[in-house]
């Protein structure tokens, strides 16, 4: 989560997004950890998703799961999955899979 975009990079009116900001190491992505455990609290997923700044990516990582990448191309490792969401839709990736995020709108 610390790699997520900074408050200065994404500030929008009327969207409470303060909890998703990090050091800006990956400026166009917000990360969520323990994503498989979020479902045990009713409504929490929708609250989390409503706080993602427009035009940015969200990557939710399950427990015992990691990603390794360069900020745009990623590979999944571990026992769980990774949910990747952007304006174009949502995808789930498992160990060995690769995916891309882009700050160029998709």
What can you see in these coordinates?
By secondary structure, the chain is mainly beta. The chain has one helix at residues 44-50; strands at residues 29-33, 57-61, 65-69, 73-78, 81-86, 89-94, 98-100. The protein is built from one helix and seven strands; from the N terminus they run βαββββββ. Helix 1 (44-50) links the parallel strand 1 (29-33) and strand 2. The model has no long low-confidence stretch (mean pLDDT 81).
Which properties best describe this structure?
four-stranded mixed sheet, mainly beta, single chain, 1 helix, 106 residues
Query: What gap, in angstroms, lies between the N and C termini?
Result: 21 Å
Rounded to the nearest angstrom, the radius of gyration is 13 Å
Q: What share of the residues lie within helices?
A: under 10%
Largest sheet: 4 strands, mixed
What is the N-to-C order of secondary-structure elements (H for helix, E for strand)?
Answer: EHEEEEEE
The amount of beta strand, in percent, is 25-35%
Low-confidence stretches: none
Mean pLDDT across residues? 81
Shape: globular
Strands side by side in the biggest sheet: 1-2-5-6
Structural class: mainly beta
Contiguous helical run count: 1
- What is the number of strand segments? 7
Summarize the structure.
The protein has 106 residues and is mainly beta.
What is the topology?
Elements: E1 29-33, H1 44-50, E2 57-61, E3 65-69, E4 73-78, E5 81-86, E6 89-94, E7 98-100
Parallel strand pairs: 1-2
Antiparallel strand pairs: 2-5, 3-4, 4-7, 5-6
């Amino acid at each position: 989560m610390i790699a997520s975009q900074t408050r200065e990079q994404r500030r929008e009116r009327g969207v409470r997004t303060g909890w998703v900001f990090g050091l800006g190491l990956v400026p166009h992505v917000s990360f969520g950890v323990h994503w498989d455990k979020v479902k045990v609290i009713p409504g929490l997923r929708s609250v989390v998703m409503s706080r993602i700044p427009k035009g940015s990516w969200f990557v939710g990582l399950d427990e015992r799961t990691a990603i390794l990448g360069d900020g745009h191309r990623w590979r999944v490792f571990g026992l769980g999955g990774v949910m990747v969401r952007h304006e174009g839709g949502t995808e789930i990736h498992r160990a060995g899979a690769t995916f891309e995020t882009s700050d160029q709108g998709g």
